[in-house]
Amino acid sequence: MVVPSLKLQDLIEEIRGAKTQAQEREVIQKECAHIRASFRDGDPLHRHRQLAKLLYVHMLGYPAHFGQMECLKLIASPRFTDKRVGYLGAMLLLDERQDAHLLITNSIKNDLSQGIQAVQGLALCTLSTVGSAEMCWDLATEVEKLLLQPGSYVRKKAVLTAVHMIRKVPELSNIFLPPCAQLQEHQPRGEGYPAALKHFRKVVPQLVQILRTLVMTGYSTEHSISGVSDPFLQVQILRLLRILGRNHEESSETMNDLLAQVATNTDTSRNAGNAVLFETVLTIMDTRSAAGLSSPTLARYVALTSLLRMVQSDHSAVQRHRPTVVECLREPDASLSRRALELSLALVNSSNVRAMTQELQSFLESCPPDLRADCASGILLAAERFAPTKRWHIDTILRVLTTAGTHVRDDAVANLTQLIGGAQELHAYSVRRLYSALAEDISQQPLVQVAAWCIGEYGDLLLEGSCEETEPLQVKEEEVLALLEKVLQSHMSLPATRGYALTALMKLSTRLRGDNNDRCPFTIPGSTQRDTPIFHLLRAAILEKMPLVERGGTQDEEAKESKEAQLSEAPCSFCPLPQASKLLDLLDLLDSSSGAAQPPPPLEPSPGGTLGHLLDLPCASPAPASVPNLRVFEREGLQLNLSFVRPPETPALLLITVTAVNTSGADVTHFVCQAAVPKSCQLQLQAPSGDTVPAQGGLPVTQLLRIFNPNKAPLRLKLRLTYHHLGQSVQEIFEVNNLPAETWQ
Predict the structure, then answer these.
(1) DSSP-assigned letter for residue 626
(2) Chain mean position to CA 555
(3) Confidence (pTM)
(4) Are the C-beta atoms of 410 and 689 separated by less than 8 Å?
């Protein structure tokens, strides 16, 4: 019994269903035998079906050379279904090394002369794929006629075929030059291929107009890539203009204004824009452009951008160009000075931190306002990472606060107070420097806050006058108090600044030796008891110097966790129980109306104890349930971790702390984290601790999310991150679906 031939779809299914290679070969051998028999029988109705199956077998890697002559028969057929498969088979089975491909020349010539666009397109595709030099000579005239067809379908394929012909036979370029000039009028996308400078310099104005349309108004939204309108076409036109404008003054003058527009209006935050800008700079440098346009500004910008990308891979090589980079900081062009600032900050290391910081501080004094925040933050981060001594670190931060205090990061005040508190040998030096700076200017709010804090903590050292590292400074108690009162009364002082000044006045009341304690705003009703020794003892205990707080991301978290554990065990967290009892004895003496002392009431370990209410200090509370932390994002050294806390008194409330850590070698700037939750929940985003994540595991950026979930619905979180890193603008949107069940159940 003869097995009938399979259809193409059935053949594909049977081959894919073969479990072994031997089964696949058996299926293909049987079907190839049927295909050969069909070719021998000369069945014209099913020849194209048999050839289609053979082409599939050929794509699987099996021999199919016996179908070459069948391709020629199908191409010569008047039926379109036959021609389509025949031309496809010719492109797959024929090439220039076989003489059989020359036999289809007459068929292609006849099909090109027809008026059917689909058939002409098939013939042009085959000619541009397997056309040899002999075929190009024979069919060049027919292709030339099709270059000016009104329909774009055939004209585009004719242009590609003409390019193939010119590559095969360069002498044919003279035939295609006149049609190419007319193509600029018919097709504004400029599909011609340049072959002769003299001829194509005549169409420079048209090329300029095409490129201006793309840059200024955009041409087609379907060709836009990352907001840049058809960057591939822009690059090709710029390359052509560079060739046409080289050593030709007239062409260069025509394109001068356009090149300036491209360089100014191209968005360089994406790779597509950088590619267009790079070709623009090459064109400017390679043509006889105007003096202002050919200035090294654009070349320097591209050079700085390239160095910024290279600084992470070869830092020492980029260091050799440090003097040139520093010179670019003074450039009047804002984009150039910004790029030079980014590269200068990336070049700072432990060996050049003094010199580079001095240059950056000089630039900070005269830089434009829009660069001051980035420059100030960069100097503070560099000083924090590479400071040679604590005194140099303090001097650097003070100079930044004095020059651009309103532009520094939010955590600058906390960092400086922590730095000063940890340098006990520099307490006298720091308080004198800050007092002098505060006396000169009280408009820089971060500087005023640090100065007020330092005066409140170490005001007694300011009055002693025994600091060998500074010039002799004689300060009176009245002058210090008057300066702090001036800060309190100033209209420029923020509420936080007034809080620092008020705290400083209270603390000075325990450190001053004169009769100025009346200025202290800390009073207890009953002025007759304020001057008693008991009152001074209580005030000294409350307003003593701040203890030193250790820094470090993981250490801080561990210390915080241990402190929370202590809160759950101790009756009150601010002092041991025996000292608290003695303090209550003193308070009872103050409150007693008679001279006899009453026995103290028993101290209750409840959160609402007398001492906690009196001083408004946090007392013991049940420890919140432990929820494991979760890492939700990691890219190029930037990590985003979530930590969770559910207050026992408000079970429906979830506190999420978002912590951003940067372990790469470059800072992450302009960091913004946004979040969204399901409609059944309410979300409140607190302000982040900063917008710059320092490199190499520096101080992390944290942000608190407060989520109220009264229905205890399953919680999902959608985050959007935007930041600048390694010279690129990054935006990431992702959803967190694996939150621990403890966060919502």
Answers:
(1) P
(2) 28
(3) 0.42
(4) yes
